[in-house]
Design brief:
Layout: E1 31-44, E2 47-67, E3 70-83, E4 86-100, E5 105-112, E6 116-123, E7 130-136, E8 144-146, H1 148-153, E9 154-165, E10 171-181, E11 188-200, H2 206-211
The structure holds protoporphyrin IX containing FE.
Protoporphyrin IX containing FE (HEM) binds next to strand 1, strand 4, strand 6, strand 9 and strand 10.
């Protein structure tokens, strides 16, 4: 168990209103991004299906958030994915990337509109060029929670994401979602990967705009 202070109520006083200046390693994720060379391997009845996808990600700074003494700076994100041949949604995801400067904790809380949420955690320094986060089913801290049907048919045992910041300002990710698919002996590795290129800068967070 991590060491926490006895006083769990008092919030930090040295909170900077400008989230973009305090995002540590997440600063390089802020903005609007596109990438059209994503690759997805997903479970289908006849075996793994591999699809190429196009992705748009918006990551905007939110105001600083405190759990008592625990202070986070973060980004709210929305991912929308379709395939080159179909305009319909192939994958949609919303969530937050959070950074706790005091400890180097990095969190991704994500939600998928098929009845699934997860909180993945990792550690990184402010100048990290790689982020590695993971969530494990059954853990109450950094875990995964799914619908009863998903638990029955596509039990999600773990989720891991690795983000790499590239020298040209783009960034790449590889995510592995391990699925126990009903009727299959082996765990299925549902893998997604893509490289994102910036198409617009982020907007300042609301408090930064007020503070002027
Ligand atoms: C770029 C990211 C992702 C893409 C493009 C993607 C795409 C897909 C696709 C196309 C399927 C098959 C759906 C079907 O057959 O109806 C699928 C299945 C699934 N995915 Fe993902 N996925 C992504 C990320 C994730 C993540 C991060 C999680 C969970 C942490 C996840 C959990 C699942 C589960 C549990 C299934 C099986 C249930 C089902 O087939 O409906 N996926 N995914």
């Amino acid at each position: 168990m991590a060491k926490f202070p006895d006083d769990i109520f008092t919030e930090p006083r040295d909170v900077d209103s400008n989230t973009l200046a305090n995002l540590g390693p997440l600063r390089r994720l802020a903005g609007i991004w596109e990438g059209d060379r994503g690759v997805d391997v997903n479970p289908k009845a006849d075996g793994p299906e591999r699809r190429v996808y196009r992705e748009r990600i918006e990551m905007q700074p939110i105001d600083p958030q405190a759990n008592g003494p625990q202070l986070f700076y973060g980004l709210r994100y929305h991912i929308h994915i379709n395939t080159p041949d179909e305009a319909i949604t192939f994958h949609d995801q919303i969530g937050y990337w959070l950074w706790e400067p005091a400890t180097g904790l990095v969190l991704q809380s994500l939600a998928i509109p098929r009845g699934q949420v997860a909180i993945a955690a990792g550690q990184a320094s402010a100048d990290a060029t790689t982020l590695r986060l993971s969530a494990t089913r059954g853990q109450t801290e950094y875990g995964i929670c799914s619908t009863t049907f998903l638990e029955y048919a596509f039990r999600t045992d773990s989720y891991a994401i690795e983000v790499t910041f590239n020298p040209d300002g783009s960034w790449s990710y590889v995510s592995d979602t391990m699925l126990a698919v009903r009727g299959q002996a082996d765990v299925f590795q549902h893998r997604d990967r893509n490289t994102l290129f910036k198409i617009a800068e982020p907007q300042p967070n609301p408090l930064a705009l007020i503070a002027g």
